[in-house]
Amino acid sequence: MKIRFGYVANALGLWDASPSKSLTFTRYSVLPKNERMDRLREVTSHNLHHTKRILYYNFAHEIKLYRFSSSLVPLATHPEVMWDFITPFKAEWEELGHIVKSQKLRPSFHPNQFTLFTSPRQEVTVNSIKDMRYHYMMLEAMGITDHAIINIHIGGAYGDKETALGRFHQNIKNLPAHIKKVTTLENDDKTFNVEETLQTCEKERMPMILDYHHYMANKGEHDLTQYLQRIFDTWDASGLIPKFIFHLQRQRRLIDLMQILSH
C-alpha cells in the first residue's frame, strides 16, 4: 500500500504566501469604478503567484496532495461582479496546471459549507451550482479536470434526513454532468454518517472521501471495516486512487486508521 500525504491551501513554511488574499464587495463598491477591475486583477494575481510558490514548495518537500484555496479569485461568483477571471490569467492558470501534471501532484478543491444540495430553498441550489461552476472553471483553465476533484458534503438535514436526501438526489440532477463527474462526497461529523454518505455515493455513482475524524465523531454503531471496500469501489469509475482525510497531529487516530487500512 502506498500512502501519500498533503494539506490544505496554506504552506506555513513559506513567508507571505497566502493564496487567499481577499477583496470584499464592500471594499470593491467604494473604489472608483475605473479602479475596481484593476484591484480584482491585482489580488487574483497575488493569489495565483503564491499558489505557484506553494506548488513548487510541495514538490521540493515531496508533498503529493494539495487542496487549492477556494478563495483564489475574489468576488468570482458575486451577482454584481462575476468577472472574467480566466482570460487575463490564461498563462498563469496553464502554468499551474503544468506544474501539477509534470510533478504528478494530486489536486482538489473543497467549496465552503454553503455549497450543498439538500436545501428546500431553490436559490441555495442555484448558488451552489454557480459555485461548483466557478471551481470547475479553475480546474479547466489549469487543464487538470481529468485527475482533480471537487469535494463537498451532502448538506444539512433540516430536521428530516430522509426528505433532505430526497432533495439531494433531485437537486444534484441540475449539476452539469461534466462537473458532477469530478465531484466527490465526504461524510459529516454531525449529520450524514459513513453509511448514509456511502449509500448516496453508490446511488449517484460518485466517489466517496472518508473523513476519519468525522467518522469518529459521528460513527454511531457503524464498524468502519464493513464499509472500506465499498468506499474503495466508489472510485473505480473515476480511475483515481481513493482519498481519505485525517489530521496528522492526531497520531493515535492515524495509527488506528493505518491498522484498519492494512486489513
Approximate shape:
globular
Span between termini: 11 Å
Count of helical regions: 10
The count of strands amounts to: 7
Helix/strand structural class: alpha/beta
Mean pLDDT over the residues: 92
Describe how the helices and strands are arranged.
Layout: E1 6-8, H1 25-30, H2 33-60, E2 65-67, H3 90-102, E3 106-109, H4 122-142, E4 149-153, H5 161-171, H6 177-180, E5 183-186, H7 194-204, E6 208-211, H8 212-217, H9 228-233, E7 244-245, H10 251-262
Parallel strand pairs: 1-2, 2-3, 3-4, 4-5, 5-6, 6-7
Name the descriptors.
alpha/beta; globular; seven-stranded parallel β-sheet; 263 residues
How would you explain this protein's 3D organization?
With 263 residues, this protein is of the alpha/beta class. The protein contains ten helices and seven strands. The protein has helices at 25-30, 33-60, 90-102, 122-142, 161-171, 177-180, 194-204, 212-217, 228-233, 251-262; strands at 6-8, 65-67, 106-109, 149-153, 183-186, 208-211, 244-245. Helix 2 runs parallel beside helix 3 and helix 3 (90-102) packs across helix 4. The longest helix has 28 residues, at 33-60. The protein is globular.
What is shown here, in short?
The chain is of the alpha/beta class and 263 residues long. It has ten helices and seven strands.
